[in-house]
Amino acid sequence: MHILSTYMDYMISPLPIRLYDHLIDSKKLLVQSLLIRNAGHLPGRTLQRSDAVFEYWAFVYIGAGRGYYQAGDGIRQTVEAGSLFCLFPGEVFQYGPEAGGFWDEYYFTLEGERVQEWLASWYEQPQIVKSVGADESFFSKIELIFRLLDSAVPANQDRAALTLESLLFDMALRFQQPETSSRALFVHQLLDDLTCGVYGKLDSAEVAARRHISVPTLRRIVHDYTGYPLGEFVHRLKVAEAKKLLLGTDKTVIEIAGLLGYTDTFYFSRLFKKFTDTSPTVYRSQMG
C-alpha cells in the first residue's frame, strides 16, 4: 500500500509532485504529541499564494530557487535556497516564487502539542524566514521521512515524526548558532552557491570570480570546510540532486545525467554507485 502519491498538477509545477495525506488510524500511533498530517515535495513550484490561511502548523523548506514570504502585516522577506519558514493558524500569508521564477519546496503539516514545546524552547520567531543552508544531510533525512510515511506502517509514521523533529532541530540550531565571523558567512554563501549550481557543468573559474577569489583558494576553502576536494564535493551534490530526480520525476537516467551536466551517462552511473553503493536504476526501483 502506497500513501505517497506522485502526479502532475500544472497549476503548481511543470514537474511531478509528491503528496502525502495521513491515512493511518491515529489511535495506533505511539507518539501522540506529534502527527504528520500532510507532506509534500513540489519541485519547480511556480504557484504563488495570496491571503492564505491554515488550520495547522506547517514547516516549509526551500531546497532551490528563490521567492518571498510575508506573515500578516510583517515585512516581505526574501526566500533563498536553504530557507526554512512557517505557516501557522491565526495569521494570513503571502508567499511563493517570484513571478516567472520557481522554487523546490518540501513541506510538512503537523498537529500535536510537541510543536508548542518547540516554540517555547528552540524554535523562536516562527514568523521569520530562517537561512539554514542547503545541506546534503537535510535532503537525505527528508527522503527517509517520505519513505517511512509511504510504508503505511504505524510504527514508521512515529519514526517519520521523530525524524522530522530531529531534522527541524538541526535546522534551528544552524540558524540560532551561526558562525559570526565574516569569513564563516562568506564560506556558507560560497557553499550555497555551489549547491545551487548542480545543474550543468561546474565552472570553477566563474564561481571563483563571482566570489572575488582565485581558483586555488576556492579549492582550498571547499576542502577545509567539507573534507572533500572541490570536484568530489560537487559530484556529491549532483548525486544528491539525482536521488531527488529519480524518486520525484519519471525522467530517464540519461536525461537526469544531462540535466546535471554529465555528457557520459556511464560515467555518471559509476559516480552514483560510488557514492550510494547502488546504480541509479536500482536506487529508483528500491526506493521509488
The percent range for helix content is 40-55%
Major sheet description:
7 strands, antiparallel
* Strand residue content: 15-25%
Strand order of the largest sheet: 1-2-3-10-5-8-11
Give the averaged pLDDT, no decimals.
88
At a glance:
Helix content is 43%, strand content 24%. By secondary structure, it is an alpha+beta fold.
Topology:
Blueprint: E1 4-9, E2 13-21, E3 35-45, E4 49-52, E5 57-65, E6 67-71, E7 77-79, E8 83-87, E9 93-97, E10 103-111, H1 114-121, E11 130-131, H2 136-150, H3 154-176, H4 182-195, H5 204-210, H6 215-226, H7 230-248, H8 253-259, H9 265-276, H10 280-287
Antiparallel strand pairs: 1-2, 2-3, 3-10, 4-9, 5-8, 5-10, 6-7, 6-9, 8-11
Helix pairs in contact: 2-3, 2-7, 7-9, 7-10
Summarize this structure as a short list of keywords or feature phrases.
globular; 288 residues; 4-stranded antiparallel sheet; alpha+beta
Notes on the structure:
This protein is of the alpha+beta class and 288 residues long. It is built from ten helices and eleven strands. The strands form two sheets. It has a seven-stranded antiparallel sheet with strand order 1-2-3-10-5-8-11, covered by helices on one side. Strands 4-9-6-7 form a four-stranded antiparallel sheet, with no helix packed on it. Helix 2 (136-150) packs antiparallel against helix 3 (154-176), helix 7 (230-248) crosses helix 9 (265-276) and helix 7 crosses helix 10 (280-287).
